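Something for you to look into today, if you have time. What I am after is a single protein written out in full by you. I want to see for myself how the chain folds. Could you add the entry underneath, on a fresh line?
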Amino acid sequence: MELHLSVEPEMLEFPIFGGFQISETLFSAVLASLIIIIFALIVRIFFIPKFKQIPDKFQMVIELTVDAVQSYTTSKVGSWASKTLAPYMYTVALIILVNGFFELLGIRAAMTDLNFTLSLALITFVLIQAYGIKKRGLLKRLRAFTKPTPILTPVNIATSLAIPISLACRMFGNILGGMIVMELLYSVAIANLALPGILSIYFSVFHTCMQAFIFITLSLTFIHEALED
């Protein structure tokens, strides 16, 4: 049996739209975004107005997850920044996790495309600079690149510019590696689907959750450093 693996995502064609083409990973990203938006609207319109003092199971799950992200963000960057950062981190976690579940359905996750992970990493890079300037001021933020000595300014700038590259490549490499492992297992374990099935749950759910946690943790850590410089 021949196995064909490609780092580049396949192109999907939609004849109904005149042969319009879109990459499989971009399709996953857009689909995940739509699912999250629709789910958020449903919760906001139909459920939140009915929330009670004593929560039911659904309300409890929503409140626990929101409180968990809020508390974790506060522990990393403080209450000053967590009010606006926590919703973004919650959204990032959701879009990564939804894409992880897509893999269980045989749809390639958006995180296996470097363009997607680089986009998330660039947003983190912008947030690092924005929160650093907002908290410390522009001059103090620029002065942070000259510490501990002005001689190291080029090194500090290069290190700062390497942050989005590091974040993007870390997630891209780990998720793509998991996808390749699963493709290899499915190609050689046709007689025994139990092992690939179990590992698929690991790579698509647990491994994806771990990568989302690492990305969020590193993002918050870099933002905290900008606030403290």
Q: What stands out?
A: Residues 102 and 109 are 6 Å apart (CA to CA).
